[in-house]
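[Q] Does anyone have a clean structure-token version of this?
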Amino acid sequence: MDEAISPPREAVDRLGDRVGRPLTARLLSDRRGSRAWKVHGPWGAVALKANVPGRDGAARDKAAELAQEDAHLGRLVDAGALCPGYRVDAGDWTGGRWLAVRWAEGRPVWEAFAPARSEGGAGTRSWVLGVTRTWAGRLARLHAVGWAHADVQPTNALVAAVGRVEVIDYALACGPDDRPCLPYRGALTHTTAPEIAEAVLLTPDDAHVRATPEADVWGLGASLHWCWTGRRPVAYEDGDDRAVKLAAIASGARVPLPEVRPWRFPEYEAVIAACLAPVPEERPSTAEVVALLSR
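[A] Here you go.
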């Protein structure tokens, strides 16, 4: 493999038995203490993640986070929320942990929604509704067995050419029991639900704040608002401290959708507004979102 930054040798040796040899690896990302590659062989492809050892200032212990995600995947498969073939392999390497999952073709939702931010024809409307319905449906499988994804955001949903959505990255997922886990302190600020934002502000940095399906619904609404309008649903400056942003979210104030929508789409606006209800109990479930968008 001719890569400037190669994946862990321990992972490559194991994955050769899964995707065949010779292998090629393309670095996809290198940020916040972890790296990801697309590893491809004659029999198929996987997404490989590994922690970056020795990086000070990483927000979390990424090796522990990868181990947690691996455990989550096993439990989600057992619960019927994920297909058994999603997890490919995982293990230790000299620098920490690695995890490989089935490769999902597709573009992040933000990128996929680019045409919808300017054009609102019948085809675009149908496509937007279909993507949203399948995204909500993927989350509904988790919610039906008591899990929350806990990191619903535009980069964790990939849209294939036919409009189907694959949800990825289960490292921060919260299950229905009290098993030991890494403290959850919210994920991407822009899609953090008000109740999670408030809890993070009111508790110590090492306290666990349990994410819920209702918080996932808010994250879905925030992601849709952001990807369709190009504007985040809560107003604050990019340079603001995270605590300032969380306080703005916790207040329940939102950017009025009619003021920033690229074109009028009443039925879609109603779904987004319902998902962004400040009170968790007033939000629809993801199963109800699917039903609304299936009419």
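[Q] Thanks! Anything notable?
[A] The first helix runs from residue 9 to 19.
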